[in-house]
Amino acid sequence: MTGRDGHADVTLYTLPYCPDCRDMRRHLTERNVVFQEIDLARTPGAVVDMLKLNGGRRSTPTIRIGAQVLVDPELAQLDAALKEYRG
Amino acid sequence: MELQYRLLTPGEQWPADPASLAAAISSQGHFQPDVEIAGDRLRVRDAAHGLTSMARLEPYAPETYESLLAGATYAPRMTDRDRETALPFHRQVTITTGAGPETNAASQALFHASVADGIWWLMGGFLADPYRHTLWGWRRWRGDQPLTDHATETAAHLPANPTEGGPR
Fold first, then answer.
1. Arithmetic mean of pLDDT, A63-84
2. Going by fewer Cβ within 10 Å, which terminus of chain A is more open, N or C?
3. Can you list the pairs that B99-102 forms with residues at least 24 positions away whose Cβ atoms lie under 8 Å?
4. What is the mean pLDDT of chain B?
């Protein structure tokens, strides 16, 4: 799943010690979704970017799928968003 | 009187940049701090409230976790998910928030809790709270009560006269 410019159009914001982030990463990988993962602890500016994106919710995992932003979603919610995005 | 928490963390270094930690703290809605990082020291300051916290990144001394829990000095308050991701520890972060003569105890305690909360969110681990004799896991810390309640309970342990007493 890539945008028109060829880059991954799914971005996953994670923290290294977040079990839900690990679950989300595994879930996306199992579904062959190409995604960019951003480690909030190690990426300068990433926390500010994520807070702008998700309405100021300091919560992980936050995932952007095209124009949709999901904050700590259930896996079923994530699948529905992926399905909608794929059309 | 200074307030102090100790974070036992699997993280090995400070967050990537001061702005990330400042944003992590300010997102909770109580303070707008400035953060400076210099080597193993970190300073968080809120000029508007006249509050400053210092944090120090140190090696993790083996057996610290076990020794805190031995003899029921600290009660564990954590979920299985917390344990799953917090261990093993690689560093210890000591977080200290001072108080000037004009400092309001409630503000001091809320700032202390907010700074610890922001560092902890980015670095993971368990928080040793000497005021409530509790070793907190993240999910219980965030899920059981809001930051303001943590601060209120911590402030309740501050002596009426700041020159007396300290963590039991």
1. 94
2. C
3. B99/B1, B99/B2, B99/B3, B99/B162, B100/B50, B102/B50
4. 91
Whether residue A45 and residue B19 make contact (CB cut-off 8 A), yes or no, is yes
Within a domain: A44: yes
Which of A53, A58, A59, A72 to probe by mutation at the B interface, max B CB count within 10 Å?
A58
The rounded mean pLDDT for chain A is 91
How far apart are the C-alpha atoms of A52 and A56, rounded to whole Å?
6
Q: Identify the CATH number of the domain in which residue A27 sits.
A: 3.40.30.10
Q: Is the pTM of this model over 0.95?
A: no
The complex scores an ipTM of 0.89
| Mean pLDDT to the nearest integer, B56-65 | 93
Of B97, B115, B112, B82, the closest CA to residue B15 belongs to B115
Nearest CB partner across the interface for B20, out of A18, A40, A57: A40
Residue A68 lies in a domain: yes
Encode pLDDT of B86-130 as tens digits: 889 999 999 999 877 778 899 999 999 999 999 999 999 999 999
Test A16 with B19 for CB contact under 8 angstroms: no
When the candidates are 3.40.50, 2.60.40, 3.30.200, 3.30.310, the CATH number that belongs to B3-155 is 3.30.310
